[in-house]
Automatic annotation (TrEMBL), chain B:
Residues 18-90 form the Transcription regulator PadR N-terminal domain. Signal peptide: none annotated. Gene3D superfamilies: Winged helix-like DNA-binding domain superfamily/Winged helix DNA-binding domain. This is PadR family transcriptional regulator. InterPro entries: Tscrpt_reg_PadR_N (IPR005149), WH-like_DNA-bd_sf (IPR036388), WH_DNA-bd_sf (IPR036390). It comes from Dyadobacter luticola. It comes from the Bacteria.
Length: 887, 112
């Protein structure tokens, strides 16, 4: 048929649809009328309109009046019941029988409802988690128009992304692209500062932001207005901080001291940002202008237009008529224009919209997305699988059970039941069980949610007042109920009463096949999850066992966030050592658990001219090495005995390899220049794991520099208790820094935090694996008991003929064991595929060894045996006299 | 016996069927009604009215000849039954008697 012809016909799909739903005895005249009307309309109003109207008309016939088939079992209306299938009396009866059936088989009902409820609870929890992930940052009213400026670059064939921006960017954007932005906000990053009011002193996280920030974040002001940052000496507090500082008193216009150096007037109090926002830590906001005025390096960066000093963050809210893509295009080469010297890494600026911040920020070295959305997918899939397992169980058990009820079907039919009544009966039963399971799962969710929140680092509330939540719960209940009810409802109700009652129901050899497939599927998922859990735990253990190159024990760090801590290095050190509680003290630009600065601009003898080098750079003092306990593989530590060490430098092993040298000793004693300034390399240390323990160590240089200090490192005396040592250290700090609280961090705890994400995955994965196994076992237990019951007579006969208990046990368990073995065989390659992909993310990774598979398989086998054996042995021990006498 | 009542639309359909004298079927009924009453009518409304009328015994139907524009499908032709005719007449009588008692028909529109 040509295209032309096709067009002059009524839409075929609509016709098909009509044929599908319309009752056959009405179809001919209705369709004829439709076609005729179509032909008429095509002539008068044009073919397009005719085709559109045709759809509209067809849909108009989607009504019970036209759908109902002529000879469906319609009973004549009578006085006592309008409809024998759905009348109130029948519904009551369905419910009553369903309830009796549940109570009669308490064991099965418990397994059924418990298993399904558990599965649903898990799915609901995961669903809530996924929902919360997607709701991240939506608190902000201008969610759709907020973005942060990010840059993309490529160095040595590796793509990188970051959000570190130069200081002059803010003014440039605001001035040059005024039409595109409603607000441009520069940020100093949210970091810890000291807030003091009278005697009350706290360390709280806060940020220096441009005056537009409260509008950009659409802060919910409790007191004051969003214009509170216009004045340079002002500060806005979050509600909780205001409460902590002022209690019930009115905070507005009170003077707060920031970092022990600035007196600021409180101009506003805003509602705390919720936990599922990026800026949830923002407990106070100080003006960016104040930051520029008080921090010389920032002022210099702006005054001298330093476009290659990337230390800040830039947030924007675009205007309604602009788009992220258009603006990204405009600002793309902004950095390159102002800092042509950065051309070698091809920096490109772009806007990262707020809706992508949480889930879609993170890239691997080839520039592919590698971010949190993957975990959302992972857990989403696990949730679906757990739910699937539970539903499979449920269907398995109900179908297995229902075969027992073939006789019931026969008798019901013999006394005059309609088939539809039987169908309704079975559906009522399955819906009732699913309904109970749903209630159970809701209670479980309410109980588990607090623990779940803790593990998952969330603050999710049970959405009692969310209509969608209840609707989808209801929808799921219905769907599961109907699906699991379908088999008994339609298959069993088709039995012929004569045959069934005579006892010749031949369910056939293949009746059990779907059930077996479902068991295999279930165990495949369970075993895969077990293998996954083992590998995740193994990976964490692998990274934890990694030699870290220094000694964490008794090491604490104190942030130098007030001016009082500077300039007293020796006095502070002497006082601390005098207490006897401290073995050593030093300062450095970064704690040993962090790597916050990296630079190029290094030169050394024999350097490959093509290498665009980049080293981690850390400023340390003479005592740093002894404080953290680093280990030398060549050369010596920085020492006060050599005056030349004032321009001394220590490299790590990785740096030596990175420089292309074969042996560390080649560089010791040589000169290395940084931005033209010569340093003498005095030694090479074993690699220290400062950054992620899953990544390779970064080539790092440690330079002697007493002025580049951000933290104080203190090694406590191992022979004294930490508590008493800390008390002594605190007294010394109070003497030197009376205006601030003494806040310290244990290095080993900081190091442990690096595993937080992975440990969270491990915890969740193992919880899910346990649940999956539990649910599968529940199902298996139910099936086994059912088989055992069904074969009671067979077992009796076998026993009479001389079968031993062991024989029978093997007979009954054998079937299930085979299925589980099959599952193990299937799950091994599946698990291997996914886990090797997961492990690729980590450069420092464990291997997937064969024993993991063996362990998981034998674990699954053991559990299966335990589950099945109980039933098998019980059946085998039955007295054959009893099992054979009943008929 | 209880008398069966007709809805307003059913009445119009029934009247139209009567007017068309045995040539009435879905599409032409729809077109005729649209022309006379100037309101949008959908085919399914006509069909459901016809079905209800048939259930109430006001019309009877039989299959007609197939035609080409209907893709060779037959039309279902409707005729008013005796009951239908009687009902129409009764309706008319009731209306007429009310209209007769209305003293000043023209005042209606202004008084409301």
């Amino acid at each position: 048929m040509s295209r032309q012809d096709e067009l002059s016909e009524p839409p075929r799909l609509a016709d098909k649809l009509l044929r599908f739903f319309c009752a056959p005895h009405l179809l001919e005249s209705i369709q004829g009328d439709l076609h005729e009307a179509f032909a008429y309309k095509a002539e008068t109003a044009g073919i397009e309109k005719a085709r559109r109207d045709y759809w509209w008309e067809v849909l108009g016939f989607f009504k019970p009046r036209y759908i109902r088939r002529k000879n469906s079992a319609r009973q004549p209306y009578d006085d006592y019941s309008y409809n024998p299938l759905f009348g109130i009396d029948m519904l009551k009866n369905y419910l009553k029988i369903a309830f009796r059936n549940l109570v009669k088989n308490r064991g099965y009902s418990a397994i059924n409802i418990g298993g399904l409820g558990l599965g649903m609870a898990v799915a609901v929890l995961i669903g809530l988690w996924v929902y919360d992930e997607f709701a991240f940052d939506r608190y902000h009213q201008h969610y759709d128009r907020i973005a942060k400026v990010m840059q993309k670059g490529a160095l040595n064939n590796e793509v990188f992304y970051n959000e570190y921006m130069p200081a002059p960017l803010g003014n440039e954007l605001a001035a040059k692209f005024a039409d595109d932005f409603e607000h441009v906000v520069m940020s100093s990053w949210t970091s810890e500062h000291i807030l003091a009011y009278g005697e009350k002193k706290f360390t709280r996280k806060g940020n220096y932001l441009s005056a537009g920030a409260p509008d950009l974040f659409s802060l919910n002001m409790k007191q004051g207005t969003r214009r509170g940052l216009k004045d340079q000496n002002s500060i806005m507090l979050s509600e909780s901080v205001a409460q902590a500082l002022f209690g019930t008193a009115n905070p507005i216009d009170q003077i707060v001291k920031l970092d022990n150096s600035m007196n600021l007037r409180v101009t506003g109090v805003y509602e705390d940002l919720p936990y599922n926002t990026e800026f949830r830590d923002l407990s106070f906001i100080a003006p960016w202008s104040l930051y520029v005025a008080t921090q010389d390096w920032v002022k210099t960066a702006i005054d001298n237009n330093q476009w290659n000093n990337n230390s800040w963050q830039a947030l924007v809210q675009i205007s309604p008529k602009s788009s992220f893509e258009a603006v990204s295009k405009k600002i793309r080469n902004l950095k390159l224009q102002h800092a042509p010297e950065t051309a070698f890494y091809k920096p490109e600026l772009f806007l990262q919209p707020m809706k992508k911040w949480h889930l879609y920020t993170g890239w691997d070295k080839t520039g592919n997305l590698d971010s949190r959305i993957q975990y959302v997918w992972l857990f989403g899939i696990i949730g679906v699988f757990v739910l699937l397992l539970a539903s499979i169980n449920f269907m398995n058990l109900s179908t297995a059970r229902s075969e027992k009820r073939a006789k019931e079907v026969g008798i019901r039919k013999a006394v005059g039941s309609y088939r539809t009544q039987l169908v309704n009966q079975f559906f009522t039963e399955s819906l009732m069980v699913v309904g109970l399971a749903f209630i159970l799962s809701m209670s479980l969710v309410i109980i588990i949610l607090p623990f779940f929140n803790e593990v998952a680092d969330k603050k999710i509330k049970f959405p009692v007042d969310n209509a969608w939540f209840w609707l989808s719960g209801l929808a799921f209940t219905l769907v599961t109920g109907i699906f699991s009810g379908i088999y008994p409802a339609f298959y069993l109700s088709s039995f012929q009463p004569v045959k069934v009652l005579k006892g010749v129901i031949n369910v056939g050899r293949y009746a059990a096949i779907p059930r077996k497939v479902l068991v295999v599927l279930q165990f495949t998922v369970s075993v895969t999850l077990i293998i996954g859990t083992i590998i995740v735990v193994k990976q964490i253990q692998h990274a934890k066992n990694r030699p870290i190159g220094y000694d964490r024990a008794g090491l604490i760090t104190v942030n130098m966030n007030t001016p009082e801590l500077y300039g007293h290095y020796n006095a502070l050190r002497d006082d601390l050592l005098k207490t006897g509680a401290v073995v050593n003290m030093s300062t450095s630009s970064t704690p040993a658990t962090d790597m916050n600065s990296s630079n190029g601009g290094f030169e050394w003898e024999g350097k490959d001219p093509n290498l665009k080098e980049n080293f981690g750079t850390i400023g340390v003092t003479h005592d740093f090495g002894k404080t953290v306990g680093w280990e030398f593989i060549s050369g010596r530590d920085l020492s006060r005995e050599y005056a030349t060490d004032s321009s001394g430098m220590v490299l790590n092993e990785k740096a030596v390899k990175y420089m292309g040298l074969k042996h560390p000793s080649e560089i010791v004693g040589k000169i290395m220049k940084w931005n033209g300034k010569p340093f003498t390399v005095v030694g090479v240390i074993r690699d220290m794991v400062m950054d992620s323990p899953f990544q390779p160590v970064y080539p790092t240089v440690f330079m002697l520099n007493y002025n580049w200090a951000n933290v104080i490192n203190i090694k406590l005396n191992p022979h004294q208790s930490a508590a008493s040592s800390l008390a002594k250290v605190a007294t010394v700090f109070r003497k030197f820094n009376p205006g601030s609280p003494f806040d310290y961090k244990f290095t080993d705890q900081q190091y442990a935090l690096k595993f937080a994400t992975e440990e969270r995955i491990a915890k969740l994965a193992s919880a899910f694996a346990i649940l999956a196994v539990l649910i599968s076992c529940l199902g298996l237990f139910g099936l086994a008991s059912f088989t055992a019951e069904q074969r009671t007579k067979e077992i009796g006969v076998r026993k009479v003929l001389g079968a031993s208990v062991a024989n029978l046990w093997a007979l009954l368990s054998g079937d299930f064991v085979k299925l589980v073995i099959l599952s193990c065989v299937i799950s091994a390659p599946v698990a291997y595929y996914f886990l090797s992909a997961w492990l690729l993310k980590y450069e420092y990774r464990t291997e997937i060894s064969w024993w993991v598979f063996v362990a998981a398989a034998s674990g699954a086998m053991l559990i299966t045996m335990l589950t099945v054996s109980y039933q098998a042995i019980r059946a085998a021990l039955l007295d054959p006299v009893k099992s054979l006498k009943s008929e | 016996m209880k008398r069966t009542y007709l809805g307003e639309f059913e009445e119009i359909v029934l009247l139209t069927v009567a007017v068309m004298e045995g040539r009435a079927y879905g599409v032409v009924l729809m077109q005729e009604i649209m022309e006379q009453t100037r309101r949008e009518v959908r085919l399914n409304q006509v069909h459901s009215a016809l079905q209800r009328l048939e259930e109430k015994g006001m019309v009877k139907s039989e299959m007609g000849e197939p035609t080409a524009e209907r893709g060779g499908r037959r039309k279902r032709l409707f005729k008013v039954t005796a009951l239908g005719q009687r009902t129409l007449r009764e309706i008319q009588d009731v209306r007429v008697s009310f209209w007769d008692r209305l003293l000043n028909p023209l005042k209606l529109s202004t008084d409301l």
